[in-house]
Specification:
The complex is a heterodimer of chains A (about 200) and B (about 130).
Chain A: H1 2-25, H2 47-62, H3 65-70, E1 77-85, H4 93-107, E2 111-112, H5 118-130, E3 150-162, E4 166-179, E5 185-198
Parallel strand pairs in A: 1-2, 1-3
Antiparallel strand pairs in A: 3-4, 4-5
Chain B: H1 3-16, E1 26-30, E2 36-40, E3 51-61, E4 64-73, E5 79-89, E6 103-107, E7 112-118, E8 124-132
Antiparallel strand pairs in B: 1-2, 1-8, 3-4, 4-7, 5-6, 5-8
The chains are: A alpha/beta (about 200), B mainly beta (about 130).
Chain lengths: ~200, ~130
């Protein structure tokens, strides 16, 4: 009698466990992670590389004698040109320059004109001036935009090597600040990144 | 706090952090007279006993705080870990939340490496350096 009573819960528990294993076996687990965590999913250019480059460039430029000098006369106006992607990967270099520009703006040391918005700005100004819909007294006055004094630009290059067991990738990001009036380079900095990948036996 | 005591407290703070998986290490506060005040918050273990912070330097780059932390690997094995700087204003508010990433760092046997950071804006009054493996 006692044996008979215990058999039912045991059977139920076993059935539940089996169902649990069955469900977990083929389900996908989604979780939020730390956006600033080190990411090593593949050897290719990743979020950690992007963040490391932006942080290093901003730290270097803010600590440079160039910024100490020019910030005495106020906040210089700059614009960000493209970063040339010379690697073999598809990399959104605008995302790197966006991060750099945001950090520099937040530091209060620079002002920027956004050359990626020129077409939209022109369109809006044309609408205000020529559309006949906007009160001329309230339309934005033309010819008052600020010209950039400095240009930020650079390169991203890579060297990749691999054999049967190992992969090695080296990235070099170079950024420069050019004085548009004198065409002199005022500042430059580099960030190097080396990543290696190795095939492991049984993931050990 | 004298420089010797300050270094000693940093050393103790890091020595307490042993094991694997972790965070929080030391924070350095700069008061109005430009004196460093160090707070150790070893709330969990990470750094192996072979790794120590041997020095920190604080200076101003214009009106921005600039820091350098020297980390030494005393062991005969390479040390691989991640570090991150956090910046706080004088009231303790963190500046530019999550704007600095965890940065991987590798130090070969018996070598020292310096890590540097510049405050994101002039309101930074103190910083923390966090480590994890």
């Amino acid at each position: 009698m006692l044996k008979k009573l215990n058999a039912k819960p045991l059977f139920l528990a076993t059935a539940l466990l089996a169902t649990g294993i069955g469900i977990s076996g083929c389900s996908e687990k989604i979780a939020y992670g730390d956006a600033t965590a080190t990411e090593t999913t593949t050897i290719g250019f990743g979020s950690t590389d992007l963040q490391s480059i932006a942080t290093k460039m901003v730290d270097d430029v803010l600590a440079s004698p160039f910024v100490a000098e020019v910030s005495k006369q106020g906040r210089p106006v700059a614009f960000v040109d493209k970063i040339k992607n010379k690697t073999t990967e598809h990399i959104d270099t605008e995302s790197i320059t966006d991060s750099i520009q945001t950090k520099l703006l937040q530091s209060g040391k620079f002002r920027f004109v956004d050359m990626t918005a020129v077409e939209q700005v022109k369109k809006q100004l044309n609408y205000q001036q020529e559309g006949g819909l906007v009160d001329p007294a309230k339309a934005v006055a033309l010819g008052k935009q600020t010209g950039a004094q400095y240009m930020l630009y650079g390169n991203l290059s890579s060297i990749q090597k691999r054999n049967d067991d190992k992969k090695d990738v080296y990235y070099k990001f170079t950024m420069k600040v050019l004085n548009l009036e004198t065409a002199e380079l005022e500042w430059a900095s580099e960030k190097e990144i080396r990543k290696t990948g190795e095939k492991t036996f049984l993931a050990l | 706090m004298s420089k010797k005591n300050y270094l000693l407290s940093l050393f103790i703070g890091f020595s307490l952090l042993s094991g694997c998986a972790v965070n929080e290490t030391a924070s350095v506060k700069i008061d109005e007279s430009n004196q460093k005040q160090t707070i150790i918050e070893p709330n969990s273990g990470l750094f192996s006993q072979d790794i120590t912070v041997t020095d920190t330097i604080v200076a101003k780059a214009g009106d921005l705080l600039k820091v350098q932390v020297t980390i030494k690997n005393d062991s005969r094995n390479d040390a691989k870990f991640q570090y991150k700087f956090k910046w706080l204003d004088k009231d303790g508010f963190e500046l530019s939340l999550d704007s600095r990433p965890w940065q991987p760092l590798s130090i070969t046997a018996y070598e020292s490496k310096n890590v540097q950071a510049v405050a994101p804006n002039p309101s930074a009054a103190s910083f923390k350096i966090l480590v994890q493996d």
